[in-house]
């Protein structure tokens, strides 16, 4: 690897060729301010805040988009550079609403932080804020273009990372504005509600639809029996809202916090992830042994499901009919649990805490989400929303004792917690598929082939002579190549390249979901992922079919996987959706 020797503020630096000035400065402990740059994206150099001086250059260069060269001498901070950055910030702020107290990003806004760092107290330029009504049409995320700083992150994420093309910039010059593609509402656009735009937005231009008041109102009603579930990825990320390290495992504290908030029962989506594996795994084994449609494709991610119905509805026969763990637990809570607890279904309120904004869409996506005669999950909150509820309740999260979930729908195996990471659904499914096919347990349940942040992973698994070819894709923009390989094989009359495909819309899977704490990078995703794997490794039972409460729910209520009752409550169907709604 070719190395570059240079200087940053007189400090020698040696970095690989191609390293930007921004990253070279970071390597020697120099922090250059930035607003438009994000490590997930190609530098667009839109904001100009990261300008630096380079000896011999007649102009200041943008550190995010300029590679450091041999012998280059860079000055990142001096009075002139600081004054230029201050002026850029003042210009941005002159077109930005001054209503921080009412903004959903107050306290976690990158522009707010920069303004504080530069001590900006007044704006010397005329205010030029364009008043635009927020777009709340999706019910999942809110688009507020008047707060847009035109950094371009959301557009790059939507188009390049996700391949959805729901967002774009319309107009030119001062008239440029952020809008859904074709200038329709966001819900009429190709948007799949993944929330990656909100996760990458540095300000309050895109954010989750806050539904915490719905939950508070339900808890206040004495006639309501309120239960809650927490998704796998929430437990390794919510701690960041309370200054814990990314990946800190907070399961017990979460149970305790939810009880203090006022929920009557606390369940765990990891339990229903185990249930999903029994249903989805049995479906896969049936397809393999009885000649069903292959490859089978996972259906746990609602943003991916929405994408498939819009962009790849030729794969509807390939989709697993198993509902997501969120929806399975809602159905079990309002049927099995309600019966056991002696509560009428109409009096139950089920909330879920999810790392995902698309889960807000999923709870009412079609009639199958009301399998109990009522909407199975009443409301889905993001990790960020729960963090706010905990603070509103005056709970000192870090001092909470460790508690346990209500075991009727709370006990889980290590396989269940793996649903929080890319490759986790596949690994959990393979652990039980091996047993379902051979009636034997694996000596080593770890499938390392399923792990890592590579965009597409492939492997062939030998299950006692049965060869199972798998593919795992995460980050929506990576899936089209996988689908096209399946299409090409079908057109040529060849065998499918894979038998089982897992897809998650967000980079890293649910640990990088659109509803997680802001600021996710690959470094943070890896830390959250490590937390998930540690939860798996410390579990007494590491396969879904070993979860005794799963065995009990089949014995007491469902009968067996894929039974008539299981299909009524735990399975769904799909249909073509228009990319642009009319």
Structural class estimated from helices and strands:
alpha/beta
State the share of residues found in helices, binned by percent.
Answer: 25-40%
The fold-level CATH name of the largest domain is Rossmann fold
The fraction of residues assigned to DSSP E strands is 5-15%
The CATH architecture classification of the largest domain is 3-Layer(aba) Sandwich
Low-confidence stretches: none
C-alpha-based Rg, rounded: 25 Å
Q: Name the shape in a single word.
A: globular
Question: How would you characterize the overall build of this protein?
Answer:
The protein has 582 residues and is an alpha/beta fold. It has three domains: 3-77, Ubiquitin-like (UB roll) (Roll), CATH 3.10.20.740; 92-208, Alpha-Beta Plaits; 213-570, Rossmann fold (3-Layer(aba) Sandwich), CATH 3.40.50.1780. It is 34% helix and 14% strand. The chain is built from 18 helices and 17 strands. It has helices spanning 21-27, 79-94, 110-117, 153-161, 196-200, 212-220, 251-261, 269-290, 302-311, 325-341, 358-362, 383-392, 414-417, 424-438, 479-491, 522-537, 548-558, 564-570; strands at 3-8, 11-16, 51-54, 61-62, 73-75, 141-143, 167-170, 177-180, 206-208, 225-230, 265-268, 296-297, 348-354, 379-382, 456-463, 466-474, 500-504. A hairpin with a 2-residue loop joins strand 15 and strand 16. The longest helix is centred in the middle third of the chain and has 22 residues, at 269-290. The model has no long low-confidence stretch (mean pLDDT 96).
């Amino acid at each position: 690897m070719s190395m570059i020797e240079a200087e940053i503020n007189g400090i020698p630096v040696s970095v690989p060729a191609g390293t930007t000035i921004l990253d070279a400065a970071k390597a020697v402990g120099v922090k250059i301010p930035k607003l438009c740059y994000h490590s997930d994206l190609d530098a667009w150099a839109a904001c100009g805040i990261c300008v630096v001086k380079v000896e011999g250059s007649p102009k200041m260069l943008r550190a995010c988009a300029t590679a450091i060269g041999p012998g280059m001498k860079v000055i990142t901070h001096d009075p002139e550079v600081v004054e230029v950055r201050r002026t850029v910030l003042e210009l941005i702020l002159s077109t930005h609403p001054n209503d921080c107290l009412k903004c959903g990003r107050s306290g976690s806004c990158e522009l707010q932080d920069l303004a504080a760092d530069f001590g900006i107290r007044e704006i010397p330029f005329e205010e030029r804020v364009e008043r635009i009504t927020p777009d709340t049409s999706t019910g999942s995320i809110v688009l507020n273009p008047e707060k847009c700083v035109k950094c371009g992150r959301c557009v790059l994420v939507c188009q390049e990372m996700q391949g959805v093309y729901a967002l774009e910039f319309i107009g030119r010059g001062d008239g440029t504005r952020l809008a859904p593609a074709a200038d329709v509402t966001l819900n009429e656009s190709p948007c799949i509600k993944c929330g990656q735009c909100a996760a990458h937005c540095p300000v309050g231009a895109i954010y989750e639809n806050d539904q915490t008041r719905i939950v508070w109102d339900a808890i206040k009603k004495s006639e309501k029996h309120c239960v809650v579930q927490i998704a796998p990825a929430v437990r390794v990320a919510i701690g960041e809202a309370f200054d814990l390290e990314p990946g800190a495992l907070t399961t017990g504290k979460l149970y305790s916090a939810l009880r203090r908030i006022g929920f009557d029962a606390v369940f765990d989506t990891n339990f229903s992830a185990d249930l999903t594996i029994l249903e989805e795994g049995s479906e896969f084994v049936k397809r393999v042994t009885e000649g069903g449609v292959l490859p089978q494709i996972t259906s746990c991610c609602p943003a991916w499901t929405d994408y498939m119905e819009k962009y790849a509805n030729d794969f509807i026969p390939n989709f697993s009919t198993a509902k997501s763990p969120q929806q399975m637990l809602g159905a079990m809570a309002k049927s099995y649990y309600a019966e056991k607890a002696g509560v009428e279904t109409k009096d139950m309120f089920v909330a879920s805490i999810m790392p995902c904004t698309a889960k807000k869409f999923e709870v009412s996506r079609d009639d199958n989400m009301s399998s109990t005669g009522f909407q199975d999950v009443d409301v889905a909150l993001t990790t960020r929303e729960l963090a706010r509820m905990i603070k509103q309740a005056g709970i000192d999260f870090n001092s909470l004792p460790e508690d346990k979930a209500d075991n009727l729908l709370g006990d889980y195996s290590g396989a269940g917690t793996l649903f929080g990471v890319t490759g986790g659904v596949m690994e959990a499914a393979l652990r039980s598929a091996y047993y379902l096919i051979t009636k034997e347990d694996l000596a080593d349940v770890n499938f390392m082939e399923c792990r890592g942040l590579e965009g597409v992973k492939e492997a062939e698994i030998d299950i006692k002579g049965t060869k199972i070819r798998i593919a795992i894709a995460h980050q929506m923009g990576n899936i089209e190549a996988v689908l096209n390989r399946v299409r090409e094989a079908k057109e040529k009359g060849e065998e499918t390249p894979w038998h089982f495909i897992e897809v998650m819309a967000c980079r890293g899977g649910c640990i990088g979901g659109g509803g997680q704490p802001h600021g996710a990078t690959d470094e943070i995703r890896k830390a959250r992922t490590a937390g998930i794997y540690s939860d798996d490794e410390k579990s007494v039972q590491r396969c879904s079919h070993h979860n005794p409460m799963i065995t009990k729910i089949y014995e007491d209520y469902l009968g067996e996987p894929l039974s008539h009752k299981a299909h009524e409550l735990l399975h769904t169907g799909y249909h073509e959706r228009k990319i642009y709604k009319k």
